[in-house]
Specification:
The protein is an all-beta fold. It has no helices and 6 strands.
Length: 86
């Protein structure tokens, strides 16, 4: 999707874009992922599928490198899958 296709995979065999958790709102369980291109893509944790052994919002923190995927919603581009590398 756009510039994010050049982000590259996280870990061997992963098919996710590479990014970093840029901002978190703990109370609302929302956040922002910054892709390697610098683009910031929001997410609402209730609408995110966590892949791998880390599946809780509390496993996320600002500065964490993650793999992610996106989808289009009525509000624009949103992160819909997050994977925390082992």
């Amino acid at each position: 999707m756009g510039d994010e296709s050049q982000a590259g995979p996280v870990g061997s065999g992963d098919k996710f874009y590479q990014g970093t958790i840029h901002a978190l709102q703990r109370g609302a369980q929302r956040g922002m992922v910054r892709g390697s291109s610098g683009r910031e893509i929001p997410f609402v944790f209730a609408h995110v599928t966590m892949v791998g052994p880390h599946r809780h919002f509390d496993d996320l923190y600002e500065g964490l490198s993650v793999g992610y995927d996106v989808s289009w919603t009525s509000k624009g581009l949103r992160v819909n899958v997050i994977r925390i590398p082992d």
